[in-house]
Amino acid sequence: IIHPCSHPEVGPAPTCEEEMYENVCLYVDRLVCAVRPRRMLYLAIDGVAPRAKMNQQRSRRFRSAQEVRELQSLQDDMEQDLIREGCQFDAEKMKKKKSGQWDSNVITPGTKFMLKLSQHVRFYIRQKQSSGDPYWQSLLIVFSDASIPGEGEHKIMTHIRHQRTCKDTFNPNMVHVLHGLDADLIMLALATHEAHFYILREKVVFGR
Questions:
Q1: How many C-beta atoms lie closer than 10 Å to residue 173's C-beta?
Q2: In what residue span(s) does the Xrn1 N-terminal domain sit (predicted)?
Q3: pLDDT tens across 26-59, in order?
Q4: Helix-strand-coil percent breakdown of the chain, rounded to 5?
Q5: At what angle do helices 17-35 and 112-129 cross, to 10 degrees?
Q6: Where in the sequence is the domain holding 205, given as residue range(s)?
Q7: Can you tell me the distance from the alpha carbon of 176 to that of 141, in angstroms, rounded to the nearest whole number?
Q8: Same domain, 115 and 172
């Protein structure tokens, strides 16, 4: 949810981080309206990953930052070439555009962005449950933020497996709906051996 809400591939990008937090909460609202969970809503954000995954993430983020620098250098060279050919540019506007570029690498456990996002989501949950809406008041909401180690989908799977150990409350016909774009969700869902498990995901259009 966080990546498409903070830097969408289609449509205008948010103007500030506060708008990104609002987009995340609106997206959760949209998913709840679509699925209408009756017992529990589990919101999980990726926490600190295991060592091997951490090395992969670090190399991916370094590569992403390097690609941004290379693209910026290429744009600067093209601007200089156009200026030499006599094209006119609004220098103040171009400077403002460059300084306003947002670094998506802040979507990492331990950053101020993730801390503020967790605080915003907690406030959103409290606001919903104290709004007087009987639907939200009857819903059990679990929020696992980035301070809790482990990837979000694995936190959810751990909870589902733990439910099987609760013989008094376990319902074998419980319906689970998991939202996410990761391909490993299919294998994780099959590994639970739950009878009713659905994966909700958006249509991904490649090449944009």
A1: 7
A2: 1-203
A3: 999 999 999 999 999 999 999 888 777 777 777 7
A4: 55, 10, 35
A5: 40
A6: 1-48+110-208
A7: 14
A8: yes
| Cβ neighbour number for residue 20 with a 10 Å cutoff | 21
* Count of other CB atoms within 10 angstroms of residue 77: 10
Q: How far apart (Å, rounded) are the C-alpha atoms in residues 150 and 155?
A: 6
Alpha helices, H only, 36-138: 51-84, 91-99, 112-129, 134-137
Q: Are 46 and 146 in contact (CB under 8 A)?
A: yes
Q: What is the pTM of this model?
A: 0.77
Continuous segment of H or E residues that includes residue 179: strand 175-179
As a whole number of Å, the end-to-end CA separation of the chain is 19
Supply 79's token pair. Answer: 């601007």
Based on the domain organization, do 135 and 195 belong to the same domain? yes
Query: Same domain for 151 and 167?
Result: yes
Domain count for the chain: 2
Question: What are 205's two structure tokens?
Answer: 């259009």
Question: Residues 12, 101: one domain?
Answer: no
Backbone angles phi, psi at 48, to 5 degrees: -65, 130
Distance CA 190, CA 202 (A): 20
- Give mean pLDDT, residues 7-21: 80
Structure tokens that stand for 173 in this block: 């016909």
**Angle at the Cα of 83 from the Cα atoms of 80 and 85, rounded to 5 degrees:** 115
Query: Do 150 and 189 fall within a single domain?
Result: yes
Domain edge (last residue) among 74, 108, 142: 108
Angle in degrees, CA 9, 203, 39, rounded to 5:
110
